[in-house]
Amino acid sequence: MLPWFQNDKFPLYLAPMAGVTDLVFRRLCKELGADVMVTEFVSAEGIIQADERTRKYTEFDEGQRPVGVQLFGADGERMAEAARRVIDREHPDFIDINFGCPVKKVVSKNGGSSLLKDCPVLADVAEKIAKGIHDQVPVTAKIRIGWDSDSINAPYVCKLLEDVGMQAISIHGRTRAQGYSGEADWDVIDECAQTVSIPVIGNGDISTGEDVENRKKNTAVSGVMIGRAAMQHPWVFKEAKHYLETGTHLPEVTVEERWDLIFRHAQMLVDWGKFPKEKFAMQAMRSRLMAYSRGLRLGKKLRVRFSTVEKVAELYDVRDEYMTWLGNETDARPVAVA
After folding, report:
1. Phi-psi category of 170—alpha, beta or left, where left has phi over 0 and alpha has psi -120 to 50?
2. H/E stretch holding 46
3. Nearest partner of 307 among 281, 325, 280, 289, judged by Cα
4. Distance of CA 115 to the CA centre of its chain
5. Residue 318: predicted pLDDT
6. CA dihedral sign, ordered 71, 76, 79, 80
7. Burial of 120 by CB count in 10 Å (0-12 exposed, 13-18 middle, 19+ buried)?
8. Integer angstrom CA distances of residue 302 from 166, 232, 291, 325
9. Residue 230, SS3?
10. Please, which residues bridge with residue 98 across strands?
């Protein structure tokens, strides 16, 4: 069994999210209690072609361990070659295969969730990767519960993946057709967890410590994966662990704590060196700022200001403006989600 599941551990994974879970955001989430990291999905072909832009997606620092590099593609032998190159260069704790991405540009290349429609190919890809890296590191997989509501086949897929050597499976409780709409089907996730003997990590609609506790108590999953909730509120990991340990909630994160994280995230992104100029880093940061603003009162007004920020220093001016807006509010209710 993977070490982060041993001794009845119930790990909290940060879900891999394209354009979100880069090295900087993973670092912040690790500090706030996330147990296991997975990189943004990376094209196996990009790795083989030694594309420097692709290589950035596989970077991580030692403090993020255990961390896995997630690959997507549809050619098992090519993906195995990409995995070997990643292992030789980065030494991740595991390789994760993306069989769940619903994005059209991935699906159109027979990657991600498209393989849920072709189980023999899916199993072949997974097996070739597992055999191709000669047990250098474990191989895991991420899937959805099916392609659409008429083809929910996750329990069958999980059994296939276990049989070809996957050592854990994370499952998003929606079909590809759903995207991120509707509710995650945790009954299917639970059925999957009871079908296989390897760890199953449940993903979908986890946003509080109570959600984590509920899934831990009422399903057979061995851990949970948190995605969109962490984008807005990365403190969710810290709060979930506190709730699991005590049954009580932590105090609400203050406005000052939220702004401190915003400043730190922005400066870390600039310092990372991935972007040639500060303004490019801040342009990339804007989507993260939009997510953070959803945890602040007057968020809609704040998002207008965030949409034009090009320097870290500007964020301090925006913060001062924001505090003035709050001061002018006659309503003294606590800060709430906008």
Report:
1. beta
2. helix 44-48
3. 289
4. 20
5. 96
6. positive
7. exposed
8. 45, 14, 11, 10
9. helix
10. 142
For residue 153, the one-letter residue type is: N
CA–CA distance, 95 with 67 (Å, rounded to integer): 9
Q: Comparing C-alpha atoms, which of 318, 331, 307 is closest to residue 259?
A: 318
Q: How far apart are CA 58 and CA 94, in angstroms?
A: 12
Annotated active-site residue 29? The verdict is: no
Single pTM value for the model: 0.93
Q: Is 301 left (phi over 0), alpha (psi -120 to 50) or beta?
A: alpha
Nearest Cα residue to 322 out of 287, 282, 295 = 295
Contact 101, 42 (CB under 8 A): no
Q: Which of 29, 101, 158, 192 is catalytic?
A: 101
The two tokens of residue 17 are 């999210």
- Identity (one letter) of the amino acid at 263? F
Q: What's the rounded Cα separation, in Å, for the pair 173 and 299?
A: 29
Residue 19's nearest CA partner among 291, 320, 328, 312 is 291
Whether 226 and 238 have beta carbons less than 8 Å apart is answered as no
pLDDT (0 to 100) of residue 255: 93
Distance between CA atoms of residues 98 and 112, nearest Å:
5
Q: Report which of 179, 203, 223, 186 is spatially closest to residue 66, judged by C-alpha positions.
A: 223
Q: Which is nearest to 184 in space by CA: 206, 155, 213?
A: 206
Crossing angle of helices 299-306 and 312-328, rounded to 10°: 160
Q: How does pLDDT run along the chain (338 residues), one tens digit per residue?
A: 899 999 999 999 999 998 899 999 999 999 999 999 999 999 898 899 877 777 788 999 999 999 999 998 888 999 999 999 999 999 999 999 999 776 666 665 666 778 888 899 899 999 999 999 988 999 999 999 999 999 999 999 999 999 999 999 999 999 989 989 999 999 999 999 999 999 999 999 999 999 999 999 999 999 999 999 999 999 999 999 999 999 999 999 999 999 999 999 999 999 998 899 999 999 999 999 999 999 788 999 999 999 999 999 999 999 999 999 998 875 445 455 44
Distance between CA atoms of residues 184 and 175, nearest Å: 9
